[in-house]
Structure formats: C-alpha cells, structure tokens
Amino acid sequence: MSQVLDAASSDDEDGADGEEYSSGSYHSGDSEEFEMLHREVLERTAVKRDIKDFLGGLPGQMGVTYQVVDRLGEGTFSSVYLGYDLQHDYHDNSYWIEPTPDDGEDRPRVKVALKKILATSSPARIANELAILEALRGCRNVSQLITAFRHLDQVIIVLPYHPSDDFRAFYKYMDAGHIQVYMKSLLQALKDIHQRGIVHRDVKPANFLFDYESCTGVLCDFGLAERYVPPRKATCQHAPASLTSLHGKHQKTPESKVVEQAVYVARTRAKAGEARVGFLHEDKRGSVKTNRAGTRGFRAPEVLLKCPDQTVGIDIWSAGIMLLSILTQKFPIFNSNDDIEALMEIAAIFGRSAIERCAMLHNRTMICNVPTLETNPDSMKNLILKLNPHIFTPPLTHPSSADARAHIEAMDQAIDLCTRLLRLDVTKRPTAAVALRHPFFEGLVDDEDLMVQEVLSGLDGRCGALHGIDDTGRRKLLPGESASRRAFS
User: Fold this and answer.
1) Among 3.30.200.20, 3.40.50.2300, 3.40.50.150, 3.30.1330.30, what is the CATH number of 11-90+109-160?
2) Looking at 202, 221, 315, 449, which residue is catalytic?
3) Fewest Cβ atoms nearer than 10 Å: which of 25, 48, 83, 357?
4) Name one GO molecular function term (predicted).
5) Does 338 participate in catalysis according to the annotation?
C-alpha cells in the first residue's frame, strides 16, 4: 500500500515549488509556516534552510500533500521531519489512528513524521525496511507505516507522529509505575515483532518513543532490522531458533570437543602469565563475517563475539540494558570504543568464567589475564545498589508504610527482571512473551499478553491480512512465502 509520486514531474512544478520557498524570509521570527519556537534563534534558520533543501528535491505536489513545519531529528542513514497531512481526510487511516467524529467543526490537523532516507543508503536496505514495516502492520507499540514514495534518488517514508520525551530527561526520576509501563510497552512491541520473525537489531532509548505524561511507548526505526532465517546447519553450540524456542537451545555438535579443547588451552595460556598470552603476528585464519549492526553499548555478547546465528535474543539484551540504565540511573551504562573493550566491560560485571562460557557457546575462545576480572563477581542486585544506593527509597515525600513496602517489592522485582534479561547465555534469556509474565508486571498485563505462543489472525485488527489460519488452527503459508520462514511468521 505504497503511494508513489510520479518521478517525471514537470519542471514547471518543481520551479514553482522552489520559488515559493526561496522568496520567503529566513528571519527567526517567521513562525507562521513553521513550529520552531522551542529552538534557538540561529538553529531555526538552519532548520528552515534544511527544510527548503528537502522540499526542493521533491516534486511540486509534495506541498499539496504535506506541510513540513520542523525537523524532528537526523541520523546516519536518514532525517525525520514533522509535517501535517493535508489530505488525511481523503484516505482510510483507521488502521493507525482513531477516527475523529465529523461534528461539522474544524478538526485538528493530523501530524505525521516524514522520514527521508539518505541517498547513500543502498536500495536493498531501503526495500528491506519497507518490507518489514509492511509486515509489522497492526503490531502493538510499533510505529505503523502510512505510505511511502520516491522521486529520483529521494525515498520518503511517512509514519505517524508520536509525541515523546528525551530519555535523558526522565530516566533518573522514574517511579515504579512508570518503569512498569515503560518496560511493558517495550516488551510488548518486541513480542509482536519477534512472533513475526523480525529482529530489530537497534533497540535503544532513542528508538523507543515514550511519552512520560501519557505513559505510551512506540518502537520505531527499523532501518537495521532483518528477518531471522534459521541456518541450514548449526553453526554454534546452540540450535537455530524455532517457534517453540525463539532463542535456540543447547546442543552438541561435531565441533563440541574441538571447542572444549580450545577453551582448555586458552585458560592454560591465560594462567601462564602475560608473556605467554597473544596471537601470531600474521594470523592466516579466515576472518569471520557476520552482522554487527547495532549501537555501541547495546550490542549483545553474541553480536560482539560475531556469532553467525543471531536470534531475536539480541533485542532482549538491549531491553535489559535500558532497564539497567533506569535502575542504576547511569546512562550510558556501557561506553566502550570497540568490541574488545565492550566484552571487557561485560566481563567486569559477570566475571571471567561467565564470559568464557558464553564465548564457548558461540564456538569462540576468550583469553584474558586481567587480574581485576573476578571469577565470582557481585550479583546484579549488589551492582545496582552500589551505583544507585537510594533505589529502595520511595519517591514520595512522606510515604506510608504500605507505599514504602510496595515500592521496595516493585524494585526487587525490577532487579530480578533485569537480571534475567541480561543473561549471557542467550538460550536462557527469556523471550519477550515470557518476560511479560514476570511478577513485575502483575496487574498490568492482561491474559492476551500472557499467551506465549500465539498465532495472530488477520481478523483481530493487529496484523492486517498478513496471517491466515487453516481449519486445524495452523499457520498457512502466504503466496510467495518460503517454508524456511514459516516458523517465524
């Protein structure tokens, strides 16, 4: 359901559009056509020029369809602008917004987010993002695709506008109730996309739009997302993921004894001292190529270890890092310069033995002789208490004994949930559906959310027409769908 504007628009239309904006003043007081009063004076001028350049590269009918009033943000692969949908009433938008009753009065204009994909992005990456957004129609707490269009090398994706607050402005002040809603919304989004076999790969606060006042959260930016396709044969000491085991499970392979022997040799070398630890100057072994997409500080151990079979569990780890930042009131909690430093940061929390076992799970060996890495480090609870000694202090000025007890119990449960989400062994990490059943969310999650293995129908308004069910209740393959992806649809 993509709207494509004619790339062969006439030069007259382009010229008229460019002339309209070039003749206007860029004085900071010009605010009738923009919404930039929250910006500094000089910043307004720069953003207005950016909007002019953005619209100047598009056909003339763009100004008839959308009015761009601000820039919401910019990243490595795209820039996002705030606009009004001038033709909202001419289309059916019931799948992404509540219909407004027509009472004859002037209704408020509908805001949308216009995501401009930079021309440096590959066509395959753009097509992948659009296909995934189309497949995620109806997912709860996930930004929905409205439409998309292309003009020459410019690709624009139109998404709903979600008011949100900067994570850095509220993460230190969240009470138990806000933490519950925040994590419930995030895990609900991950549950729905994981049931469709989609790995987000870049879960972080900037990609989870949370409105602190209304307590609503939406997962966005699927530019790095991909479909999980199980490998034809096991590549690690864990089996490929399946519908009944989204994160895989332990297994023995022909390489198991080789890996165990390599781990034994690595530990022996590490104990031998600094002079015996190292690798050949000219290592002739082939390099390992795997997907390392993600943001520094939020990459799961299996990503850092270059595991070739990365499941949806990498998103669960990132969600755990977000919860850890909230509980410790430290953001970012990890801030390494490369993958080796990132592994050392994780080892400093979980211990040398734990990270070695994690490496072995992915057919890797880790050699380290840093004396400060303990074999049996403190628990996650003790770590959080060291970083945030006041975590069990109720936020109320004069709390009652019942309020204090409820706060302490909620924080205990939040710490336990965080510990489970941050398990190094991906096969023991809970799925999003299992995490939603944690006592931390008691009374907040309904029975529908507790369904661990649900098959979503296209009739429930949550998945468009993407799923079909036969007479036996089993999932039917869609036209053109490969059987290898059936378990994750």
Assistant:
1) 3.30.200.20
2) 202
3) 25
4) protein serine/threonine kinase activity
5) no
